[in-house]
Amino acid sequence: MPNFISEDQIEQALVQKLQHLHGFDSLDCHTEDPGDLNDGSGRANKRDIILVDRVKQATIRLNPHIPENTIDDALEQLVDRRQALSFVAANQEVYNFIRDGIPVEFDNANGQKQQERVRLIDFNRPDENRYLAVTQLWIKGERGYRRPDVLLYVNGLPLVFIELKNSNVKLRTAFDDNFTNYKGEIPQLFLTNAFCVFSNAIETKVGSITAEWEHFFNWFRAEDEKEKVDQEEVKRRGTSLEGVIAGLFDRQKLLDYVENFILYYKDSQKIIAQNHQFIGVNRAYETFLKREELKGKLGVFWHTQGSGKSFSMIFYARKIFRKQTGNFTFLVVTDREDLDGQIYRNFLHTGTVTKAEAAQPKDSEEMRKFLGQNKRLVFTLIQKFRWDKGKTYPDLSPRKDIIVIVDEAHRTQYKSLAENMRAGLKNAQYLAFTGTPLLGRERKTNQWFGDYVSEYNFQQSMDDGATVPLYYEKRVPQVLNQNENLSDEFYEILEDENLDELQKAKLEKKFAAEIEVIKRDDRLETIATDIVSQFPRRGYLGKGMVVSLDKFTAVKMYDKVQRHWKDRIKELLGQIKKAVSEAEKARLHKQVEYMRAVQMAVIVSEEAEEGKRFAQQKLDIKLHRDRMNRLDEHGHDVEYNFKDPEHPLQLVFVCAMWLTRFVAPPLSTLYLDKPMKDHTLMQTIARANRVTSWKINGVEKRNGEIIDYYNVFRNMKKALKEYAQGQEGLDEPPVREKLMPMLTSC
Description:
Radius of gyration: 29 Å
CATH topology of the largest domain: Rossmann fold
CATH architecture of the largest domain: 3-Layer(aba) Sandwich
Oligomer: single chain
Strand content: 15-25%
Strand order of the largest sheet: 15-16-14-17-18-13-19
CATH class of the largest domain: Alpha Beta
Number of strands: 26
Helix content: 25-40%
Structural class: alpha/beta
Distance between the termini: 52 Å
Number of domains: 3
Shape: globular
């Protein structure tokens, strides 16, 4: 632990660095009497936060062609308290004024009506603005006065709220006490706020006004997302705030962040870029500016699962639309309909594109039409680039201002179709977004897209606290030896939940021996028994996911677990009757109560004539399909229920669905009983590494847990080295093994 560092010492050091490093002026507004207007701020009312005199000076300087009386009218719009709007809506309205200017109309020198926008900040020339660090400003609220520690102003607008604590005080108190109270008592403080910072020197967090505590994040790096950070040394020296000072409070970076890295999702949630997103997107943007010399290869953006890649895409597109002149079209390519829909909705719900400006073509012909119409955003599946063999793929567009963003470009789907895409869009610019790195001898992805433009791996994400650590337990049933040398083809077929007839035939014939081992009934019984024993007795009783070989096995596992679950409850009730100790009775009662409340569901994709296919296996899919399609009494679907930490749906059985791009923070335990390797394995285990502040029986989620019934660990060691730890690799793997005994066979 560092020596004690007081709140006052942190404040003084912060202000001095802002002055010396970034040219901020400083203003100490402390007065003994909170109501004293003579505090140097120039305010006429202690309820005010905006320093109107400074704003007016800046607007006159930045808008010399707009009459002063028109500027005064614009400032009246700015300082309106917006009491009729929600907290987020008010912040968003003011943010739009700050970013885009305040619309005004006035008569010009020729007596003609002229429409303009009053600029409040010059984002293109940072030195044309005035920067001020204000300390100890008394603000009048509904129930007295409050005094934030530091507010950072640009041209009289308070953009950054900073709350400081002594180094021996838990940082979360800044959120629970000060921040929460301020939002309730002096909400006007946050009308112009871009982001918030909390620090006690040994720890510093950044977040938006709508973020819960678990979504406040660290900011360690200023220039390079791969920079090694000794977090223990940072804590020991109490220098955690320096990363924010260097990485966010530099004039150009601060204005860039405010202008290009703030989103409003569905007008109800404010999303701001994390450290790796800010650096990574800016690296990708700088590469975009060199697109002519790079001949369309804009690089590979590798940010690990759970790091917000879809929002990074949005930040990237928004910055190009805003900062570059041109009629750009973004073509976003995925290989699955659910991902295509998810990314489209994210662009739509953040206001990056309207429905009229976006398109989702049904085939190549319609894609050509949309590209010819200069749509801002086009979302499509790589499968729509299919073409008859032997025939030349048609030219979709000769345009050079089409930017193709390809999601997970290394997957099998792209191998045969990417060349069609290239043939149809010869002059386009290509950028790959991926959660896993580029491997293999040919490294096709490098040939098509170029080298890494940004890298943020699994290990870094865990180190930064963006995800929780994962622990691994090997619990392989000793039934039969398993094939250690399965072909790539076997794994590739298993990635697809809806196998075509050819793939089914290959599985049944070519890999019959391996399939027989995995699906043996006595083996599945052993696993089901173990799940029933382990699931109710974990430390953190988060949600669980059982990953099986195929749809049939997922349903079988559900049936077996259900049967053993009921038997286990009967067993426990018998133990309660025999128990002598009241403490033991209470413990067993608690476990029975938990098990009775748990709901389970099968989650598999729907296909034609599935009832008949399942009936041939003596299984009933109708019960499960009804559950998957049903809305509850609140209008929520099964996915919403599983993501809700309070909902009793606790355990789901899957084979491919929900293994990628599915974020459920309460999910803490994965039961793996399916052959997996490489990026598919990494994407799957990342389902359990999401951060949540939700406590269960007073227990926090400190890690995710992987229970391995197939011995995927032999593949995991290689995958972790190549996919999780960057190009250099690390000695200590980010998934730590727990040595557990193997299960006994039936």
